[in-house]
Structure formats: structure tokens, C-alpha cells
Amino acid sequence: MKRSPASIHKRRGGDDLDFVEPFFLISCGDINSMFSLFGPSQPIRTREKVWLELGVGFLLSEFGRSLLDPERMIDDIPDMNDRMYSGTPDEVQQVFRTVCERMEAPQERISLAGLDGQDADEALGTYERGDESDTIRLSETAQEDYLTCVATLAHEIGHVRLLSEDRLFVDDPNHEQLTDLFAAMAGFGVYIANSTLTDDSGYAQGWSWWNIQKSGYLSSREVGYGLAVAVHFYGGFRPAWADHLRLDAQVPFDGGLKYLSRYHDQIGSLYGESYIQPADWTTSRIMEHGRAKTAGPRYAAVWAIKEGSHDPTQFESLLERLVLSDRDSDVRANACEAVAQIDLDISVQCEILSRALRDPDIEVRATAAKSFGDLQSPPAEYVRELEMLLRDEKPVRYAAGYGLKAFGESARSSLPQLTKLLTRALINCDDNETDFMLKAIAAIVPDGDEYFRQAFAHEGEFLKRIMSFLNPTAEEAEFTFDA
Known about the structure:
Elements: E1 8-12, H1 31-34, H2 46-67, H3 89-102, E2 110-114, H4 118-122, E3 123-128, E4 134-138, H5 140-144, H6 146-164, H7 175-194, E5 197-204, E6 207-214, H8 220-233, H9 247-263, H10 283-290, H11 295-307, H12 316-325, H13 329-341, H14 346-356, H15 362-372, H16 383-389, H17 394-404, H18 415-427, H19 431-444, H20 448-455, H21 460-470
Parallel strand pairs: 2-4
Antiparallel strand pairs: 1-3, 3-4, 5-6
Helix pairs in contact: 2-7, 2-8, 2-11, 3-6, 6-7, 7-8, 8-9, 10-11, 11-13, 12-13, 13-14, 13-15, 14-15, 15-17, 16-17, 17-19, 18-19
């Protein structure tokens, strides 16, 4: 199905490093699946591994072997390096020409301009698609630093190749990450990997200062492994440019080469065939991957079950085994999502997810609890199990609140706990938990307006904050709310 492409895209920059990932992304994974006593360990988490391998396969199918050949990696632009670069307009233009040439982008239809105003505070660069030409804008911060300038231009020109040529569309959820991966594979992997985290310091007039900045959409670890996947596809010999990768990219790069050379479980080129999306995998291929010895193929099998159009009942026993006994927590969590998303009998779905609520891994418990919220009218007998998770770690509490929404008024017994958690979230100014608990209560109580008025009758400030969540455009404390 054709989807509308983006008009403007930004390369992220200047992020606060004290960020919190979504609750379903924060677990550290299963140690047993990451390390082996008898061979090289898997250098990154399974979900990252599979996504990167599928991304490499997609890009190779789109652009061919020549453009993405690791032997053509650029680790230094001629007559320019970090010591010589001063950010003049001529130097920025030289970098622009070099990046366009290496990425085989139509330089004549791309305009390069500066970025100012609010966008300059929020982004290092932007891409805007036009009918006749595209416009790339760079902030002063990106222009001043050599490494950031190259990486930002490579990312934005990646948008030209992917979005302007309709190879990818804005509503693809990982299009920004895939653009970073493409820029890394199309000659600028060293720059993309080394620019994800930059710092600066100085001393003036008796004051010393230090600044650290995060940019890009992939971590150095992910870029490093993505490059290892590409190099493995092209033969697996370690290139000289790998010595220029920063350490947190170089370790997964070297580890990835060793791991893939040993296990050969790379998704997308395992059998040397052309790229096939998981949604198009055959039933036999899914079952084969689901029985694999390493975690990556098993994770990909679940992905294929979720994305495909097969009869879901034939995968019931496979998913149950993966949810309840797989060694890798990413596989177990992914299988929980699949159980809720595909068309299985509601009693089967609830029984499998109920047992997963007792998983020792926090992410699996959270994913199982959240998956209850995606079911249609689950039996009330499972409310108690989700209520018990409201005393668990914060990510699991979020998920349990979301899961209880599916039970509607059958979950009224959970209102005291949910209201207590909502009050604590308001006290702590925790907007994420406030939002989760408000939505859970609203789904359970049909007269949400009256319930919140009574519960917070003596807490005027809390009532105003609740109003701001439920009705952001209202100016008075009076509000209405539909569950």
C-alpha cells in the first residue's frame, strides 16, 4: 500500500542524556542468551540484532552491492580533517559535495541552507522534500564541528535517497533509524558511529565548563553491529577503517564478526537468497526459525508470525513454548506480544499471558501485562493477577494499568490501588505514570468526570492537573471526560 512521504525530517541533536526508554525496552535481556562458555557471545540484544540484520537486507535489496560495499568506506575526507576544519561555508560545501558523490545522490536537485530559529535549537539538520528539489538545512552547531557536519549531512542526504526516491515512507516506524543505518553503510559508518556522543570543554575568565551531547537515532553499539553484519555479508574480513571506530562501536563490530562467523545466523542472508520480508515468510520457514539454536532466528520467527497472514492456530504451540521456556528474554517478550495480536482463542491467550506474568524478567512481565490490554473482553478472573503487579517495579505498574483497561467495569476492585498510584504520580510530577493511571481508571469507570471530582474533592491542584491531562485546551477546573 502506498503511503504519503514526509515533508520535513530532522536529525536529532542536543538530547538530554538522562532519558527514560519506554517500559517495554528497558530490560537488560537474558544473560544466558548473551554469553556462551564455548564460543563468541552475541554482542547486542536480540531485538536489536534482528532489526539491524533485516535493515541491512532491505538496504542491500534496494541499492545493490556496489553502493554499500564496505571497501568504499570513507574514514577521512581528502584535504580535510578535524584539526584543519573550521566550519567555513566553503568547507561545508566541500563536505556536502563529497557526501553527495559517495552516496550517489543528485546534488543538482538538493539545496543546502542554514537552519535558524526554534528548529536550530531542536535539530542538527533538517530535510524538506519538494516537487522539483529537496532542501537540507544545517544548524550552526552542525556546521562548526567536522564530525557532526559529516554525520548530519550523510543522514539528511540519506533521506533524499530513501524518501525522495520513495524507497521508504514517513509512517514506517523505524525510518529514522534505517536512514542512519543507510548513511553508515553508504560510506560514512565511521562518522555516524563516532558522532553519536560528543563532548566539549573549556576554561575562560576563571570558569571551566564541560558539555556532552547525544545525536543520531542509533547508538554507537548498534551502528557497530550493523556494520559487522554488512562486512560479514561481503566476506567477513576486518577492514582497516574499523580501527577508527570509537570503542563502544568497535567492540560490537569485532564481536559481531566473530559471532556471525561462528554461528552464521544472520537473518536475511542466512541461505544466500534475496531479501524477503518476514511478513512474506512461508509457514515452514517460520517453524524452522522458531526451532533454531540461537535466539535471533527464533525472535525473527515471532516477528514473521505477527506480520504475516497465516492461520495463527498453527503457531499456538510454538508461541506457548517460546513465551514460557525460551532462554532469551527478548524472544519471550516478543512472543507475548504475538499471542495477544494474532487471532487465537481468548482462553488460550489469557492462559499463556497469565503464566508469563510470573516471569523473572521485568520486561517479560511488563509485556505480558500490557498484552492483556490488547485483548478483547478477557475474563474477569485475571484481574487479580494484574492487580498484584500494581505493586511491582514502575514499568510493570505502567503495563498492569494498561492491561486492566481491557476488563472495563470488571476491574473496579483495582480502583483504590490505581487511585493511590495516580496520587503518588501527581505528587512526584511523573507525567508518564499519571497518564497511564488516568487512562486505566477512565476505562474502568463509566462516569469518569464524577469519579475524579469525588476522589480529589479536597485536592484542588491535583484536580486541575488531571484536567490538563484530560482536557488540555480547557482553562477552568470544570471539565468533562468520556471514558
